[in-house]
């Protein structure tokens, strides 16, 4: 039967035993030295995937005193040195950003990661505006509503719906804190620039009393073979770990791409609001960054996405401003004015946009025009970092199971969601937090952390919640990517009605922010926090 003791303690006991018999029985020493070398590649936990989910899990385990004796290996195919050495550049932002919920930020504070963040690159926003691109029906969210209703917030000093942060910035902070945890005794080995070649089961039984016959063996392209008491798949949508466990991934592709870009916007506008407009071709969102910058994600069919990436920068900026302010018919006209081969506009997009805006504002005074723009629309785009334009395919996936014997999945390896709600990475962080807590509880109780019964507890917590979020985002996508009159009328009626119901909006905000805890659950959270003190 496999031992439940951390492998670091087993290795230490073998080293002490070898030192004790060195002079009397050198032949036995050689035998144990060979075995000890074999155990160098045996780990309690092997995490495949060094993205945010994988590094966050490694950091969470390293920061927890209960798990500090457990040997952890983190495997990443890419070079992490650039991320580890990253420093912010003035007036330059990455196009890969995440909208961290207050709960996610609170988790990183509990682990100790937020101490490594550059606070001036963390942009909180307290307001959100979402509206129908066909009927202009609108719903507005503001954390001031939670204060009015007396709802508890995770961060009382900074009541934000979410916090915008660059992915590279967040991962940099995680890696820095992981390095600090190593300095106080955490046993986490990072193997970067190596790829998983194969995963199989160990066929041999160790002569040291460790039964490894059901332990996964991760073979790397550098010749190493790591044996894992628990194998964690944090390796993305095409997860080799999931394939090894014979877990099917269910879902479909949307035949749409998310186009991202970083903009310089009107600096006179406050950066405390996010905006999202649902167009028949897909939603477009503008998310605030610090210092007069903003990040955009625009979901569109592949043919439109290609035009958005390749059209000239000035025309692209005009089109983004138009996407938040003009009708779908006007946008359709502008799409048609791009050459199919060169993607050069056949008309002046800025002039076309200005003329149409003038028509929309006919009869309004200058003050009314300014008030309309300030209250309803995001800051106007002034320029785009042309190197920031990129796209990625949109998919929906959910694994049939999140675990198998000695295997567990987190993040995109377990599920992938449409980005319209900005919840994809946050769901992965919730996976990591839940798994780390369950492993800590199992270790405290002397359980085998790779045992299928322990991993089932993780799946029972996370599977349903992820499924609810995936389903909700999919239904929103399908509801709003149509201009069929009866559907648009019904959805606009519903949106307008919800906007009048403060308690409903408060519940939506609480769920999205991750603060839908009862008093009992908050006490449980306080108990968990004490484990990290």
Automatic annotation (TrEMBL):
Its EC number is 1.14.15.45, 1.14.15.46. Its cofactor is FAD. Gene3D superfamilies: FAD/NAD(P)-binding domain (3.50.50.60). GO terms for molecular function: 2-methoxy-6-polyprenolphenol 4-hydroxylase activity; 4-hydroxy-3-all-trans-polyprenylbenzoate oxygenase activity; FAD binding; oxidoreductase activity, acting on paired donors, with incorporation or reduction of molecular oxygen, reduced flavin or flavoprotein as one donor, and incorporation of one atom of oxygen. Pathway: Cofactor biosynthesis; ubiquinone biosynthesis. Component of a multi-subunit COQ enzyme complex, composed of at least COQ3, COQ4, COQ5, COQ6, COQ7 and COQ9. This is Ubiquinone biosynthesis monooxygenase COQ6, mitochondrial. It comes from Circinella minor.
């Amino acid at each position: 039967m496999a031992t439940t003791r951390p492998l670091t303690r087993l290795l230490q006991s073998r080293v002490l035993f070898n030192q004790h018999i060195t002079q009397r029985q050198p032949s036995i020493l050689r035998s144990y030295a060979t075995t000890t070398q074999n155990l160098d590649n045996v780990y309690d936990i092997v995490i495949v995937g060094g993205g945010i989910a994988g590094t966050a899990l490694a950091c969470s385990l390293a920061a927890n005193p209960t798990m500090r004796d457990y040997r952890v290996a983190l495997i990443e195919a890419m070079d992490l040195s650039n991320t580890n050495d990253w420093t912010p550049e003035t007036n330059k932002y990455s196009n890969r950003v995440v909208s961290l919920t207050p709960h996610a930020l609170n988790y990183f504070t509990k682990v100790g990661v937020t101490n490594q963040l550059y606070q001036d690159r963390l942009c909180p926003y307290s307001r959100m505006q979402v509206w129908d691109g066909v009927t202009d029906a609108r719903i507005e969210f503001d954390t001031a509503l939670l204060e009015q209703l007396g709802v508890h917030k995770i961060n009382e000093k900074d009541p934000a719906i979410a916090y915008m942060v660059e992915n590279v910035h967040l991962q940099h902070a995680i890696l820095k804190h992981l390095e600090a945890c190593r300095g106080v005794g955490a046993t986490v080995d990072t193997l970067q620039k190596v790829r998983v070649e194969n995963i199989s089961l160990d066929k041999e039984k160790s002569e040291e009393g460790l039964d490894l016959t059901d332990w996964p063996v991760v073979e790397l392209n550098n010749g190493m073979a790591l044996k894992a008491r628990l194998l964690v798949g944090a390796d993305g949508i095409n997860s080799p770990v999931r394939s090894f466990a014979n877990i099917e991934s269910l879902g479909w592709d949307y035949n749409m791409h998310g186009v991202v870009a970083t903009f310089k916007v009107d600096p006179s506008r406050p950066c405390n609001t996010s905006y999202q407009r649902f167009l028949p071709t897909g939603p477009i969102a503008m998310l605030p960054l610090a210092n007069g910058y903003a990040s955009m994600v625009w979901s569109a069919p592949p043919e439109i996405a290609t035009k958005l990436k390749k059209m000239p920068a000035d025309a692209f900026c005009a089109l983004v401003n138009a996407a938040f302010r003009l009708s779908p018919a006007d946008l359709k006209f502008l799409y048609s004015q791009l050459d199919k081969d060169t993607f050069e506009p056949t008309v002046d997009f800025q002039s076309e946009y200005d003329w149409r805006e003038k028509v929309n504002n006919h009869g309004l005074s200058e003050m009314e025009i300014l008030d309309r723009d300030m209250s309803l629309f995001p800051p106007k785009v002034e320029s785009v970092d042309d190197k920031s334009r990129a796209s990625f395919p949109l998919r929906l996936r959910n694994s049939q199971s999140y675990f198998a014997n000695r295997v567990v999945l987190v993040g995109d390896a377990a599920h992938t969601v449409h980005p319209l709600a900005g919840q994809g990475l946050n769901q992965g962080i919730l996976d990591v937090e839940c798994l780390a807590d369950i492993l800590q509880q199992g270790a405290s109780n002397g359980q085998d952390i790779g045992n299928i019964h322990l991993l089932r507890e993780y799946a029972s917590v996370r599977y349903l919640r992820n499924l609810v979020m995936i389903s909700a985002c999919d239904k929103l996508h399908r509801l709003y990517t149509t201009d069929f009159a009866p559907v648009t009328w019904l959805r606009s009626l519903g949106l307008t009605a919800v906007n009048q119901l403060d308690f409903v909006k408060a519940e939506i905000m609480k769920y999205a922010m991750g603060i839908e805890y009862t008093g009992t659950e908050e006490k449980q959270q306080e108990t968990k926090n004490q484990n990290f003190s």
